[in-house]
């Protein structure tokens, strides 16, 4: 598939079909931008694709194609209206825990919350300056409860049930009431949008927060990663 998208006229190849199903994690975007049949075009008649990158295209296309619902927008605005000059965001992806018992086990992340707090202590400009607001997003309710007391007057999170929308199968979903599932989805989407508004970001390695971070105006500015794979 990568070879087709990178070097062949896949638009002509797929034109006879009404639907073409592709499941991708982003690799095909870079391949398509190298395709000689595609990169001579202009996006929306303006941006030459020869000058495009995945980092440039993602926030542009995301904002063009997706609009948050009113309830998600209200949740984001509530946090952004909270008094602050710097929004420092933490995304703590623990893996299997009481909040998400069906998640994959990530044993190297057991002490990650504590290590992230230690990092903030060692870098006070990220957390301890006047008018800094700490936003916490996590797949673990315990991780959130561990962080908030350290910043009792300057931290915030999105309330609601924690669900992992990628790992909930239909059988499991039927066991939960619809109201809880909807509230969990609203929380996930609100978290995603807020993570794209931060001035400083401390992330665990997670596709969710990495893509959310790409929405930032300067995604590599004050970006710090906790990588348990090293």
Written description of the protein model:
There is one protein chain. The protein is of the alpha/beta class. It has 2 domains: 2-65, no CATH class; 70-226, 3-Layer(aba) Sandwich (Rossmann fold). It contains 10 helices and 7 strands. The strands form 2 sheets. Strands 5-4-3-6-7 form a 5-stranded parallel beta sheet, sandwiched between helices. Strands 1-2 form a two-stranded antiparallel ribbon. Strand 6 (200-204), helix 10 (207-213) and strand 7 form a beta-alpha-beta unit. The two termini are 30 Å apart.
Helices and strands in order, then pairings?
Blueprint (H helix, E strand, L loop, with lengths): L1 H6 L2 H5 L12 H7 L8 E2 L3 E2 L5 H12 L4 H11 L5 E7 L19 H11 L9 E7 L2 H7 L7 E3 L12 H5 L3 H18 L4 E5 L2 H7 L9 E4 L4
Parallel strand pairs: 3-4, 3-6, 4-5, 6-7
Antiparallel strand pairs: 1-2
- The dominant shape is globular
The chain-level mean pLDDT equals 89
- Quote the distance from N terminus to C terminus: 30 Å
From the alpha carbons, calculate the radius of gyration and give it in angstroms.
20 Å
Beta content = 5-15%
Number of beta-strand segments: 7
In CATH terms, what is the fold-level topology of the largest domain? Rossmann fold
Largest beta sheet, briefly? 5 strands, parallel
Q: What's the number of domains?
A: 2
> What's the CATH class of the largest domain, please?
Alpha Beta
Low-pLDDT sequence parts: none
Proportion of helical residues: 25-40%
Helix/strand structural class: alpha/beta
What's the CATH architecture name of the largest domain?
3-Layer(aba) Sandwich
What is the number of helices? 10
H/E element order: HHHEEHHEHEHEHHEHE
Strand sequence of the main sheet, in spatial order?
5-4-3-6-7
């Amino acid at each position: 598939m990568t070879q087709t998208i990178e070097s062949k006229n896949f638009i002509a190849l797929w034109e006879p079909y009404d639907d073409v199903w592709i499941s991708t994690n982003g690799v095909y975007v870079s391949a398509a931008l190298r395709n000689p049949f595609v990169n001579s075009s202009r996006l929306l008649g303006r941006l030459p694709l020869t000058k495009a990158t995945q980092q440039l295209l993602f926030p542009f296309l995301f904002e063009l194609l997706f609009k948050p619902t009113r309830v998600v927008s209200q949740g984001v605005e509530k946090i952004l209206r909270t008094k602050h000059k710097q929004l420092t965001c933490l995304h703590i992806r623990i893996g299997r825990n009481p909040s998400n018992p069906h998640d994959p086990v990530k044993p190297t992340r057991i002490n990650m919350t504590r290590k992230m707090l230690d990092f903030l202590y060692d870098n006070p400009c990220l957390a301890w300056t006047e008018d800094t607001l700490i936003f916490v997003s996590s797949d673990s309710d315990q991780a959130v409860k561990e962080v908030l007391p350290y910043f009792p007057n300057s931290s915030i999170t999105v309330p609601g049930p924690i669900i992992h929308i990628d790992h909930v199968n239909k059988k499991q979903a039927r066991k939960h009431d619809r109201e809880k599932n909807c509230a969990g989805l609203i929380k996930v989407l609100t978290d995603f949008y807020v993570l794209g508004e931060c001035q400083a970001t401390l992330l665990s390695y997670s596709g969710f927060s990495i893509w959310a971070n790409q929405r930032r105006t300067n995604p590599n500015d004050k970006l710090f990663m906790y990588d348990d794979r090293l």
